Amino acid sequence: MAQTDENPNKALAADAAAALRSATGVEQHDVALVLGSGWLPAVDALGEATAEIDTTDLPGFNAAAVAGHSGKIRSIRSGDRNLLVFLSRTHFYEGKGVAAVVHPVRTAAAAGCRAIVLTNGCGGLREGWRPGQPVLISDHINLTATSPIEGANFVDLTDLYSPRLRAACREIDPSLDEGVYVQFPGPHYETPAEITMVRAIGGDLVGMSTTLEAIAAREAGMEVLGISLVTNLAAGLSGQPLNHQEVLEAGRAAATRMGELLGRIVPRI
Ligand code: 8IG
Fold first, then answer.
1. CB 52 within 8 A of CB 14
2. Which of 183, 198, 163, 168 shows the shortest CA–CA distance to 228?
3. Is any ligand 1 atom within 6 A of the Cβ of residue 121?
């Protein structure tokens, strides 16, 4: 296994990376970023776009399905790095399969990226956390009951979320907390009873993305940085129902802080 051309998912990613090279004119990308709910306003701090293309221009990508996720890929020159920024992601709950969820990650690896920054918007469980607060992902619990890896490839997930990059983030912003991210399949939010369960199993953050992508990134040999933006308190904690609008508002309100963090961490990756 693991021969690029023998694995159809990796072959599709190699095709997408080739199409990306010709569409952007950028021979090699160095660092990939995936923007989650609420993160779009932060991306402008990363620099001028060299090129912006529609995901649907590349083999294997679907059109964006969620408000606040635009189906675009931006190539940004930042210092001596070429950044590959996915302004949207395919979510597991779209039902297109795990391979579709991690196709951007595999495309980034095929395009030359050695590291990936996975961002998301999520619910927060910890006492004192407020909407608009960024939290570094220290580890994850994958409750999707599936994996992006096929076959007997027993990938190690120890230190999946780079201790080096988390430490660098905390040097930039010592007030940053860390937490364990729990991915549910969605698209419904959790019940209050499920949030009680998350607390019991050691989770701090709940969302519908990131873990499958992180696993695929590790399989591809990339260094992973995960940053969550707490956009709402987890179900049952605020006394209010959850809605997607507050997610987008929390992102707008936190954009300056997120943008500054991304802008300062990228040169250290
Ligand atoms: I933004 O509270 C966002 N995404 N599962 N739960 C889950 N996903 C989310 C949440 C949340 N908030």
1. no
2. 183
3. yes
CB 232 within 8 A of CB 131: yes
CA atoms within 13 A on the CB side of 250: 26
206 lines ligand 1 (CB under 6 A): yes
Ligand 1 pocket test, pick from 232, 240, 247 with the greatest ligand atom count within 8 Å of Cβ, gives 232
Residue among 219, 221, 178, 220 at smallest CA distance from 202: 178
Q: Which residue has the tokens 């990939």?
A: 32
The answer to whether residues 261 and 153 touch, using CB atoms and an 8 Å cutoff, is: no
With H, G, I as helix, E, B as strand and everything else as coil, classify residue 39: coil
Q: Has 190 been annotated as catalytic?
A: yes
CB contact at 8 A, 37 and 118: no
| Torsion angle defined by CA atoms of residues 135, 37, 160 and 84, in that order, rounded to the nearest 10 degrees | -120
Pairing of strands 72-78, 133-142: unpaired
Nearest to 178 by CA among 140, 141, 214: 140
Q: What is the pLDDT of residues 69-115, one digit of tens each?
A: 558 999 999 888 999 999 989 999 999 999 999 999 999 999 999 99
